[in-house]
């Protein structure tokens, strides 16, 4: 269980990320760096955030042949991040390669970053999954299937929505995480997210950690929004 909300720092460059951090509580945070920021600011910015004392979730969602993913995961681990992502749809051998690469890239005596596998994006509905991706069965069955694959490959958890979290955690060994984006406060616009929950509901439904972007980064007072979400998450 990660007891602080993970903040998705989805901004276009390092300057905007630094400006956002100025508006957030001055304490060690858990920050998610995704593709938009990483492709602009790069590894040096991730190192800088680590130096400032923040935990980092590097969300690049690797999806390639096992050899390429292993080498990429090795580079990610060398950044000493805490969490990173691959797509479960890459298959068991690819996830195993990510876990192996992360172990190889970790300095001696340190813990490798936890590999999380994306089961079904929280922007996907069951209908989209069946019609566009041609994956039969229910969304819950697909998430269950991919979390089994992830567990067998040695990943430390999955990305899913809060609605599937309990099933994932019940079926896997204790400590296996269900990390859930798609978090919105009651009444907020879901935007492109389809499977959403508020922080308290996510906790009740078994999430191990919540990932929150626009509810914090788009708020008039990001620090106040963070505190509201943190309180709802911790106290549920
Ligand atoms: O299934 C997934 C996987 C990753 N994400 C990421 O989480 C954040 C959510 O941002 P919001 O602004 O709170 O919607 C974003 O960085 C996504 O890339 C996800 O939403 N769903």
- Outline: globular
Strand portion? 15-25%
CATH topology: TIM Barrel
Question: Regarding CATH, which class?
Answer: Alpha Beta
CATH superfamily: Aldolase class I
What is the H/E string?
Answer: EHEHEHEHEHHEHEHEHH
Radius of gyration: 17 Å
Pairing-aware structural class of the strands and helices?
alpha/beta
**Major sheet description:** 8 strands, parallel, barrel
Listed once per kind, the bound small molecules are: the ligand O=c1ccn([C@@H]2O[C@H](COP(=O)(O)O)[C@@H](O)[C@H]2O)c(=O)[nH]1
Enzyme class: lyase
Protein name: Orotidine 5'-phosphate decarboxylase
Subunit structure: Homodimer.
Keywords: Decarboxylase, Lyase, Pyrimidine biosynthesis
Task: Supply the key terms.
globular, 8-stranded parallel barrel, 236 residues, alpha/beta, binds the ligand O=c1ccn([C@@H]2O[C@H](COP(=O)(O)O)[C@@H](O)[C@H]2O)c(=O)[nH]1, TIM Barrel
Would you summarize the structure shown here?
The protein has helices at 14-22, 35-51, 66-78, 92-105, 126-131, 139-152, 162-171, 199-204, 214-217, 222-235; strands spanning 6-8, 30-34, 55-62, 83-87, 114-118, 157-159, 177-180, 209-212. It is of the alpha/beta class and 236 residues long. α3 (66-78) runs parallel beside α4.
Any chance you could write out the topology, listing elements then pairs?
Layout: E1 6-8, H1 14-22, E2 30-34, H2 35-51, E3 55-62, H3 66-78, E4 83-87, H4 92-105, E5 114-118, H5 126-131, H6 139-152, E6 157-159, H7 162-171, E7 177-180, H8 199-204, E8 209-212, H9 214-217, H10 222-235
Parallel strand pairs: 1-2, 1-8, 2-3, 3-4, 4-5, 5-6, 6-7, 7-8
Helix pairs in contact: 3-4, 6-7
The protein binds ligand LLZGTKA7.
The site of the ligand O=c1ccn([C@@H]2O[C@H](COP(=O)(O)O)[C@@H](O)[C@H]2O)c(=O)[nH]1 has 16 residues, from strand 8 and helix 9.
């Amino acid at each position: 269980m990660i007891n602080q909300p993970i903040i998705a720092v989805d901004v276009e460059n390092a300057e905007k990320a630094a400006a956002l951090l100025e508006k957030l509580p001055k304490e060690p945070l858990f920050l998610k760096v995704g593709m938009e920021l990483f492709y602009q600011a790069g590894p040096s910015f991730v190192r800088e955030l680590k130096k400032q004392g923040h935990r980092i979730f590097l969300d690049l969602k690797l999806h390639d042949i096992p050899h390429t993913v292993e080498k990429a995961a090795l580079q990610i681990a060398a950044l000493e991040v805490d969490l990173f992502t691959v797509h479960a749809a890459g298959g068991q051998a690819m996830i195993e390669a990510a876990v192996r690469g992360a172990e190889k890239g970790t300095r001696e005596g340190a813990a490798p970053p936890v590999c999380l596998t994306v089961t079904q994006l929280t922007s996907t509905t069951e209908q989209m999954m069946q019609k566009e991706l041609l994956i039969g069965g229910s969304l819950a069955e697909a998430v269950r299937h991919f979390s089994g694959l992830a567990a067998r490959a040695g990943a430390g958890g999955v990305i899913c929505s809060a609605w599937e979290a309990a099933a994932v955690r019940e079926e896997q060994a204790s400590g296996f995480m269900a990390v859930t984006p798609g978090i919105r406060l009651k009444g907020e616009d879901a935007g492109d997210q389809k499977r959403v929950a508020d922080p308290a509901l996510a906790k009740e439904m078994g999430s191990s950690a919540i990932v929150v972007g626009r509810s914090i980064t788009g708020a008039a007072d990001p620090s106040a929004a963070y505190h509201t979400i943190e309180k709802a998450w911790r106290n549920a």
